[in-house]
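Input for the complex:
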Amino acid sequence: MSENTKLHPISIYLKIWLLLFVLSTLSYMVDYWGFQGYLRWTLILLFMFLKAGFIIAIFMHMTWERLALAYAILAPPLVLLVLISLMAIEADYIFAARKLFFGA
Amino acid sequence: MAEQALSNENMVAEGFSGIAQDWSDEKQAFQVPWGKAMMWIFLLSDTFIFSCFLTGYMHVRMNTTIAWPNPSEVFALTVFGAHIPLILIAIMTFILISSSGTMAMAVNFGYRKNRKVTAALIAATALFGLSFVGMQAFEWSKLIEEGVRPWGNPMGAAQFGSAFFMITGFHGMHVSIGVIYLSIIAFKVYRGDYDKKDNYEAVEIAGLYWHFVDLVWVFIFAFFYLW
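Predicted:
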């Protein structure tokens, strides 16, 4: 039992909770105000990673876990970046091929 | 632990107990209760499942030459005469975040050995989850009524339906299972099971699962609804 996960003050959870509400509202506003292009994507990804980070670090207590556990859980998903890149390149290729052969 | 390993040193087990012995003897990697380590490893595998769905969705959305239905419009609702884009999804997001907050508080009160407040907070989390599933059922019925099917829809690219039903369906299943899981834990907390054991780990482990369900929704919200 890791000693440090036990008795954090309630206030830290309330602060993070409030912050998650603010971040969610902001990401909804990105759509509501109709931002487009790179600005939209930068904001969506920024708010997404901030929310995900706070949930994992504070709500799921990852900040207070030992590194052996943190790395074992957080490092493997990084290989997904390879899958995502490959699929993006392939989707571009299929899109181009469809344009070329079906002229849609 | 060390003493036990020493006394067992000369007993080399064969077969399946041999595997268990080889992988466990004095080789503990994670300094956490085993239940917590196992939940984290399960969540890691679940991360890969959801990532595969989202990557597959990205792939079909990028390679279709037919326009993708605009989620902002598809999920808009007219409330009291006002047309608000994506409002149902925004409410669902806030419900899930609220439930994550009550769950985080439940874990904290659990470690303070406050039996009644912990049980109440877990029950509140389960109720938030239940209302989330209810709203998702409403969303699904609305889209099915409008003619959205896994193989096509009247608004645009046919792949929209399959990606939508697959991703939100799988997430909704996780929420539903979570509601059942939390109800059981809330009942056990209320009955005093964890006071008897003097150990509220089970609440934190259930909390990990629930926060993960919220975490997945953060990504679905960004990639499916805001794209």
